[in-house]
Design goal:
- By secondary structure, this protein is an alpha+beta fold.
- Helices cover 48% and strands 14% of the residues.
- It is elongated.
Length: 351
């Protein structure tokens, strides 16, 4: 079962992961801190930092490109109007020339004197001829000015589009670089998690400075942005029995939140769930967060609604990055209840 609805991501994954990875580890009850090379953690932190800076540059460049696109489009619209105006001028020149021809403007002055019936008629003809010549000359000069302006604006428009295309190429390269950095960082983060699971010992909590949360109720969803995947009770070859929780499809490194206030009663880094956390809540319920890439709390810690307790991953028996979330009546496997109606009863509908 897979529901396509997505929720807006309020905190970028790259920046969240950077905060987690750059924080200083502390000791954890019943855990070890020697499950990986600390140099790799520092390198991952630097990669996430680079990715965060590149993301800011990409966003700034994207906005600049949109401004440049609007400028180029304004130039194009101006060119269309100028071409239309020049076409009208050319039509006026043709009309003036035809009128002058019909009025005898092409006759030499001697012929006009001979054919004129009186001096007054000759003077009127000369006046009309002069006015026509002036109109023609003015129109020709106006047309030439417009054509010079058109040529200049065409060059500006061409330069604007060339600049835009160049910027698009730069942004595409920057985006590719971001994706490569993020992928490398996530792989390194997951590699540390896999090493911890293989050793059966956690590296310890990575403390982080969580941004101010906007949680107003007593309960929240375990991740802020997600796509629901396997649901409670699902069957298939992936599980020996029915699926015991609700899966949230999220990228590696996504911050995982405690759904409510409680106490961390288990932090484990071995077995089919990989890296997992179990939190005890008031009322006799427990929530489990499994297949993590890192933990940010220790066993015995008190947690609040929305507090970051780990990072999602794909540790243990997992077919891809996701958070496995369970609601239990005991801290142990086998006592799970459907998380979707349980959260809905607490004002947190999913899907």
């Amino acid at each position: 079962m897979r529901l396509p609805r997505r929720h807006p991501l309020l905190v970028p994954v790259a920046l969240c992961a950077l905060a987690v990875l750059a924080a200083r580890p502390t000791g954890a009850a019943e855990t070890r801190r020697d499950g990986g090379d600390p140099g790799i953690s520092a390198q991952v932190a630097r990669l996430y930092e680079d990715a965060a800076v590149a993301t800011q540059q990409y966003e700034k460049g994207r906005q600049e490109a949109e401004v440049q696109r609007a400028r180029a489009q304004r130039f194009e619209a101006l060119l269309v109007r100028e071409r239309q105006a020049i076409a009208v001028m050319h039509e006026d020149l043709g009309r003036i020339a035809r009128t002058q021809y019909r009025s005898g403007g092409d006759l030499p002055l001697t012929a006009q004197i001979i054919l004129a019936g009186s001096p007054e008629e000759l003077m009127r003809g000369q006046q009309v001829f002069s006015q026509a010549n002036l109109a023609v000359n003015n129109s020709i000069e106006k047309s030439r000015r417009a054509e010079r302006r058109l040529a200049k604006d065409e060059a500006r428009a061409a330069a604007a589009w060339q600049s835009l295309e160049k910027r698009k190429v730069e942004l595409a390269g920057l985006k590719t670089d971001i994706e490569q950095k993020l992928e490398e960082a996530r792989l390194r983060l997951q590699g540390q998690a896999d090493a911890s699971v293989a050793a059966g010992a956690c590296r310890g909590a990575v403390r982080l400075d969580q941004p101010p949360t906007q949680v107003v109720g007593a309960w929240v969803a375990p991740v802020e942005a997600y796509e629901l995947s396997a649901g409670f009770g699902s069957g298939g070859s992936r599980w020996a029995n029915r699926h015991t929780g609700q899966d949230f499809a999220v990228p590696i490194g996504t911050p995982v939140r405690s759904v409510g206030a409680g106490r961390v009663v288990k932090v484990s880094c071995g077995g089919p769930f990989g890296i997992e956390i179990v939190v005890e809540h008031l009322g006799g319920y427990y929530t489990q967060y499994a297949h993590l890439a890192a933990v940010t709390v220790d066993q015995g810690d008190q947690v609040t609604p929305g507090q970051w307790i780990g990072q999602s991953g794909t540790s243990g028996n997992s077919t891809g990055p996701h958070l496995h979330f369970e609601v239990r009546v005991t801290p142990e496997l086998g006592s799970a209840t459907d998380p979707v109606p349980w959260l809905a009863e607490r004002g947190i509908p999913l899907g």
